[in-house]
Amino acid sequence: MTQLASLAALALALLLTACQVTPDQDRAQAIFAAANAVFEEEQLVGLQAAVFSGGRVIDRLNLGFADLEHGVDVSDATRFEVASVNKTFTGLALLQLEEAGGIDLDLPIQYYVPQFPVKPGGPVTPRLLAGGLGGVRHYTEEERTPEYYAAHYDDVLQAVSYFADDPLVATPGDTEVYSSYGYVLLAAAIQQATGSRYQYHITETLLARLGLENTGFVDVRFPLPHRSRHYSFIDLYTREAGEQLQVLPTRDHSVINGGGNMYSTASDLATFGGQFLRPGFLSEAVLEQVYLPHFAADGTPTQFSDGWVLIGAGLSPRFLFFGGSYPGTTAFLAVYPDADLAVAIVTNTWGRNGSNWTLPMLSTLGGILTSQ
Description:
Low-confidence stretches: 1-21
Distance between the termini: 40 Å
Mean pLDDT: 92
Shape: globular
Number of strands: 14
Largest sheet: 6 strands, antiparallel
Radius of gyration: 22 Å
C-alpha cells in the first residue's frame, strides 16, 4: 500500500470512528424519541429535553415554539416555569444547611418561623415538613382565583402569612400530606436560619455554584429574557378539556416560593439532577439521605421526601423523580444513579391530557434502560 493510500485508509478509519454513535448518545436518542412522541400526541406548543451523563449534558432536544403567536422557536436558552420542581431545590438546601450545622430539623418550626402559630396535635418540625408529614394543607383549586394569582409576595415570610392561621389537615407525624405551603414554611426556615433571603440563599449556594445561569425565581412584574408563554387545551379555572388551544394569562405564583415558583431550562435541570448521581458537589451523607423515606408514626414510609418522589428508590433501575405542573407548565426530572443518567423535560403546554404523560414517561425510560 502506498503512503497516500495508507493515509487515506487512516483518514477513513478516523471518520468512521467519529461517526459512531456512543451508547450514551444512542440512549439519549431513544429518550428524545419518547419525548417527541409526547410532543406529538399531546399537541404541545413547545418542549425542551436534556440528558446528563458522564458529568455533563450530552444532548439536547428543542421542539416547537416558545411563543406561538410571534413564531419564536424553542431554543437551548428558552426558559420554562418548572412549578413544584422548586421543592427539590428547597429540599437540597435544607439538607446541606443541616449538614453544615445551620439548622436543627427536629426543633419546632416556630423556633425559626415564629410567625407560624403553634397548632394542636403536636409540634410541626422542619423534618416532618420535608417528608410531607407536617400536616400543613396544600392549596385548593377553589382558592386559585384571579385575585389569588394577582397578589405578589416579595418575601417568603409574607407568603407564610397567607396560610399561617389555617388549621392543620392532619396530626403532625401521622399522615403524609403533599403540601406546597409546607415547603414555603421550609423556605422561611432556611431564610431565618441563614439570615439571607431564601431566593438569595438558593442562588448563592446552588445556582451560582453549579453554573445554572438559566435558572432562577419567577417575578412576573419584570421582563425575563427568553421567557416562554403558556398554553393549554384544559381551561384554567373549570379544568374542562376542550378542542381549542388557549393562551393562558400571566399568573403570579410568588405565594408558593419554595414550593413552586422557579424557571429553568432542561439543560439546567438535567445538570442539577446530575449532582445526585455520585459524590462531588454533594456529600455521601446527603446523597444517602435523599434516597431514604421519612416515616409516619405507624412506621409507614413516605413517598415524598426532601423534595423528591421516592416511588422508584427501591426499584431496578433505581431512580429519583420529581414533576412540577400547573396549567400551561409541566416539568419532569428523573435521576438514575446506577445508570449514570439524569433526564429533564419541560414544556409550556398542558396538552390533550394535561400533565398526565409524566408517569408513563418513567415507565418508558425504565424500558429504555433495561433494554440496553
